[in-house]
């Protein structure tokens, strides 16, 4: 397919500038020529009338037809040279005339209406007509001879100024105008080239057609990205966002042009614009969704001119990870339970082989009674199978670790609300119990952990208590921070996950601890979310 050609920005700008300058020059030149013609015309008209008036009062002109005409011819020659007239002529009433330039005198047989008017009425007249050098301005004045008691018109003075001489004068002046216009055009071209270079520098050397093409491609790429993308200007106002950002953040077209910091201050875009430091893979809870946020400033010449924020939904990924974690924990708990039962069977087998039948029976009855009380609380009052399975595994794990783990007989969980995912509930319960096991693991005295859950009332209440060393007041304020642990490296993520899950379910968590005695974690999860 043949690529569509386009006119470059440089060509467009130069064409526009040259066309504009030429248009202005043409307009100004036309106005100039018109004004010059009018000025020259007025000047010639006044000059021609002044010439014929002056000549008509000179004695040699008045007596030219009575005496020798040589004096009159000399005056006509001098006057013509001084004023630049094309022709000067005196004509008698009888039609005899002398002119300069001429080869002598002639008798005019041609009837001239203007001559007639000047001879008859004695006025001064000006007309346009054909002269000795073509179209001319022709002025006439009567020659009046004064006697002692009367005045008599004896002839007419005529002066001709050719229009060609006027146009020639204007053309001489027009050379300067045309030269100036050429200089202006050249300056305009030079300025256009500089302007084009400046614009291309701002557009990174791209033509407008290339910019529009790249813009469409960028829009297509941005809209096709599964991550939410939001761009802002240097003031923090939203300029662009894609469809994924609409879905993840709940943005609408009306949000364009608004401050992102006002809509979602938890993103921290203001800090990025102020410091110029990027934020990578930070977790942020927005619209009940756990998002991974990356914020990068846009720099130009070491100045911040905007920023881009990307968002990934961690909620779905977290659900899969939590489910996988549940399966892994179930597997570990079942292994621990299998190991514990194997130990008990070995103990029972040893008692039977040694003939301690009464002790064997007592052991069986003790185990049966304990398991029955636990199973009654577990299977009759807690209806969710996943929670049952998870607690059953914890019982086995506690037995393996020599921890006395009990489920409060007053526990009850009849129905889990729709907005609470079972996976989130098991994350909360499992991590709290594991945390309690860790708290009592290294104790020399009897290790006790108890679990209680109830859905009576407006909340689901979960309570896990241990008789460990307890937590200091200073540690209580930071135990939910990521990777905080008193057990060493790569530990301490359990309570962070608990805190996140509780916050997602709009719940609360409380910690009560007595140093050296016990610690109680209590979680309150509302059955109904207000406004939902």
From TrEMBL:
- The broad enzyme category this protein falls into is transferase
The main location class comes to: membrane
Q: Which residues form a coiled coil?
A: none
Tell where it localizes: Cell membrane
Domain (Histidine kinase) ranges: 424-529
Can you cite an annotated GO cellular component? plasma membrane
Question: Which GO molecular function terms does the record list?
Answer: ATP binding; phosphorelay sensor kinase activity
- What protein am I looking at? histidine kinase
């Amino acid at each position: 397919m043949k690529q569509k050609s386009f006119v470059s920005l440089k060509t467009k700008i130069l064409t526009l500038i040259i066309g504009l300058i030429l248009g202005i020059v043409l307009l100004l030149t036309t106005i100039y020529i018109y004004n010059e013609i009018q000025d020259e015309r007025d000047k010639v008209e006044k000059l021609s009338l002044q010439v014929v008036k002056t000549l008509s009062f000179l004695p040699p002109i008045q007596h030219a037809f009575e005496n020798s005409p040589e004096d009159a011819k000399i005056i006509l020659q001098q006057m013509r040279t001084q004023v630049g007239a094309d022709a000067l002529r005196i004509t008698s009433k009888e039609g005899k005339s002398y002119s300069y330039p001429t080869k002598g005198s002639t008798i005019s047989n041609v009837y001239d209406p203007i001559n007639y008017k000047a001879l008859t009425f004695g006025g001064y007249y000006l007309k346009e007509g054909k002269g000795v050098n073509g179209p001319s301005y022709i002025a006439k004045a009567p020659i009046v001879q004064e006697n002692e008691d009367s005045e008599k018109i004896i002839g007419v003075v005529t002066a001709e100024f050719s229009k060609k001489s006027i146009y020639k004068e204007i053309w001489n002046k027009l050379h300067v105008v045309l030269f100036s216009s050429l200089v202006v055009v050249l300056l305009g071209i030079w300025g256009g080239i500089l302007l084009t270079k400046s614009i291309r520098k701002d557009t990174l050397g791209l033509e407008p057609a290339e910019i529009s093409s790249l813009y469409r491609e960028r829009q297509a790429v941005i809209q096709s990205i599964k991550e939410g993308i939001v761009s802002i200007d240097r003031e923090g106002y939203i300029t662009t966002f894609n469809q994924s950002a609409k879905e993840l953040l709940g943005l609408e077209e009306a949000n364009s042009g608004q401050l992102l910091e006002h809509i979602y201050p938890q993103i921290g875009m203001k800090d990025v614009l102020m410091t110029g430091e990027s934020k990578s893979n930070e977790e942020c809870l927005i619209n009940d969704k756990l998002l991974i946020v990356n914020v990068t400033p846009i720099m130009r010449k070491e100045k911040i001119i905007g920023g881009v924020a990307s968002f990934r939904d961690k909620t779905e990924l977290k659900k899969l990870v939590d489910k996988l974690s549940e399966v892994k924990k179930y597997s570990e708990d079942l292994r621990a339970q299998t190991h514990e039962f194997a130990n008990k069977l070995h103990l029972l087998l040893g008692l039977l082989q040694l003939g301690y039948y009464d002790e064997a029976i007592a052991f069986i009855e003790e185990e049966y009674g304990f398991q029955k009380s636990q199973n009654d609380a577990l299977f009759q009052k807690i209806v969710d199978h996943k929670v049952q399975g998870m607690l059953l595994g914890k019982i086995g794990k506690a037995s393996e670790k020599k921890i006395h783990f009990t489920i409060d007989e007053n526990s009850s969980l009849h129905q889990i609300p729709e907005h609470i995912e079972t996976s989130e509930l098991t994350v909360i319960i499992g991590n709290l119990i594991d945390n309690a096991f860790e708290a009592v693991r290294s104790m020399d005295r009897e290790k006790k952990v108890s679990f209680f859950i109830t859905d009576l009332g407006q909340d689901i209440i979960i309570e896990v208590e241990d008789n460990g060393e307890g937590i200091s007041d200073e540690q209580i304020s930071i135990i939910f921070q990521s990777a905080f642990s008193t057990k060493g490296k790569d530990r301490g993520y359990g309570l962070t996950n608990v805190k996140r899950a509780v916050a997602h379910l709009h719940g609360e968590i409380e910690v009560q601890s007595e140093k050296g005695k016990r610690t109680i974690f209590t979680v309150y999860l509302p059955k109904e979310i207000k406004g939902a």
